[in-house]
Amino acid sequence: MRAVIVGAGFGGLSVAALLAKGGFDVTVIEKNEQPGGRASVHRDGGFTFDMGPSWYLMPDVYDRFFAEFGKSPKDYFPLARLDPSYRVFFADERVADVSADLGKNYDLFESFEPGGAEKLRGYLAEAEETYGITMSDLLYREYRSIFDFFDRRLLAGGRKLNPLENLESFVKKRFSSDEARKVVQYSIGFLGGSPRNTPSFYHIMTHIDLNMGVWYPEGGMRAVVESLVTLGREFGVEYRYNEPATAIDVEGELARRVVTPLGAHETDVVVVNADYPFTELSLLPEGSRSYPASYWAKKVLAPSTFVAYLGVDRVVSALAHHNIFLEPDWEEGFETIFDPKKAAWPESPSFYVNVPSRTDTTAAPKGTDTLFVLAPLAPGIEDTPELRERFYDRLMNRMEEILGENIRDSVVTRRIFALSDFTDRYNAYRGTALGLSHTLRQTALWRPSHQSKRVRNLYYTGQYTHPGIGVPMTLISSQIVARELTDRYRR
Questions:
Q1: Which ranges carry the Amine oxidase domain (predicted)?
Q2: CA distance readout (Å), 61 to 66, 152, 257
Q3: CA-CA distances (angstroms) from residue 312 to 237, 375, 395, 418?
Q4: Is the terminal CB of the chain with fewer CB neighbours within 10 Å at N or C?
């Protein structure tokens, strides 16, 4: 049984290995020159940058994925727990380290507000319980109809999940200080949402951060990509790079071949990890599309991003591995992303700085640092060299002001990556970096389907599908798809 996988992102690599293990003859075709998709690698002047995902969270999901092969992540890459997990720079010049030691985090929240330690204990207990419900009843299952979503188990858990309340409201009831509220909400930006449009059950992110920990795979997230490629090769997967799909040929209700500039790949099954709307609108004939252009136009897209990959010729000692710079009016920042009437390059953005060289000796030459400076942007807005330079100066001015030191004069290599680059390199719809936001109406059953509604042997995996954004979610998406396909074709 032949399977062609379109796209070698985390979704494509993981589903390829799973299907090959299940007996399929698997070929992965990839538009770009290397595997990883948005987790590509950029190298320049001795500096190495993971271009996309930089947080290794939810280690239990990775464990569960590799266990399907009788293996462990540690068979491929050692893991180190980061301490501090991340550093937060508040606008009032306060700097707080979120620790791997939970006791220190209780002390930190007590310094934010009276009773903060006890409030955090209660919040974490709620988050841990919700995480358990989510993992056991929500994430690893397929949704084909409303009856799947509202079955007895989910209805029982749903009362505790409280899906109709947004995260902002949920958090405001539990913490009074601006600092505490921001620390427990900041990560929603990495899931492509804002506290106002994200359901409250995503407070599980605080349990993931503080209880489960923030980890780093030796060699970076690129080591995780390499592990999936190696795993696939162990089961006979063929990888073909620099070979973009140009069409999926459909005959009747079946995809028969995937066409590329180098020829056509005949197949029995197609699994797409490429951008979902691009595939539907550009690779499939109109009568074979599950969703028309109007469907995508109405969706709430996750942000695009501005990223500066900087190699600096010294160590910026004030920075930890992960650093969050929070501006006082972060609500305005979310409005410039999610309110179409206010969509613009933000004036005072909150932003994130990743310094992998703080942990990883392969990321930069000795005595230097790699900096990954990221700020979210609204998808679809204008993107010009002049706007990029102006925004770069704005971010660097703010970071230098907060740190009290000049960094720009130490930059020896620089690459800027933003909206149009996401479109050009990844065929990303309107330049989104992440896909669809996690609003209630874009959760579980209401995300685009894993299986095409028009083509019986066409499936999708990755961030657009259930369960959503992030490397762990993408691994789960692939496990769902692979289970569906192996069960179907085994029968």
A1: 11-485
A2: 9, 25, 33
A3: 39, 19, 16, 21
A4: C
